[in-house]
Amino acid sequence: xxxxxxxxxxxxxxxxxxxxxxxxxxxxxxxxxxxxxxxxxxxxxxxxxxxxxxxxxxxxxxxxxxxxxxxxxxxxxxxxxxxxxxxxxxxxxxxxxxxxxxxxxxxxxxxxxxxxxxxxxxxxxxxxxxxxxxxxxxxxxxxxxxxxxxxxxxxxxxxxxxxxxxxxxxxxxxxxxxxxxxxxxxxxxxxxxxxxxxxxxxxxxxxxxxxxxxxxxxxxxxxxxxxxxxxxxxxxxxxxxxxxxxxxxxxxxxxxxxxxxxxxxxxxxxxxxxxxxxxxxxxxxxxxxxxxxxxxxxxxxxxxx
Length: 305
Known about the structure:
The chain has 305 residues and is mainly alpha-helical. The chain contains eleven helices and two strands; from the N terminus they run αααααααβααβαα. The chain has helices at 27-30, 33-58, 67-103, 114-124, 129-134, 145-148, 168-179, 224-227, 238-245, 256-262, 275-302; strands spanning 216-220, 251-255. The protein has a two-stranded antiparallel sheet with strand order 1-2. Helix 2 packs antiparallel against helix 3 (67-103) and helix 9 (238-245) runs antiparallel to helix 11. The radius of gyration is 24 Å and the shape is elongated. It starts with 26 loop residues before the first helix and ends with a helix. The relative contact order is 0.13. Mean pLDDT is 79; it is low at 1-30, 142-146 and 151-157.
């Protein structure tokens, strides 16, 4: 028997052994804002199937067995199968949501506006299936600070500083994500902390430098320029792309100086920063990449094939 997570239990239809199908929605499950944001597609799909089930059940189905009754039973079996597939997708989506909330209990999952979805979707339509399949070849292995150290002075042509050139269509997806990035209030929690106060010591630089926080920026730990070439990212829906790009796993507060120094590369290669901070950033980057790939995989399972 299929196990159902706690939120999904209220959405599951009661399926008797006979051909009848009954469907009951769960207002409690659908009232969860985070659930609606991350799993809006699978929830809508399941609701649509349940509406068809209610319409099916409302039609007369009594009387002697006939070709009409056989067709009725066949339709019931089809609806049951479609509902099970929709539930499976919803369960995959919910697992990703629960995992994210457990890792980042103070963070907010950002949801895209209709305009954001349209902008990203317009760019995504230009990407061919072949480009989606081959996307990871543009993500040359990044310079691994944890393994190789900071590197030689003036080393600015490493792949993490100068990423491989993307096809124009994929580059347009990157630009759409960049143009739709949300605004986070300074009170928002990113990686468990709020934005540092202006005028306080900048943790990115050695204490001896006397550098202070001049401004604060929300930084994508895995740059958007890199994210578009992660495995299967381009197979996501526009809404799911937005959710992954701006998920709690991929956001941190940086000072304006540190963020501008980082650019579209890794914070581990910013110039003049503290070696201890660069080490911490390299570890954070590895953690973010792993969690984002998990989220991509889970959301892909929640989409219709």
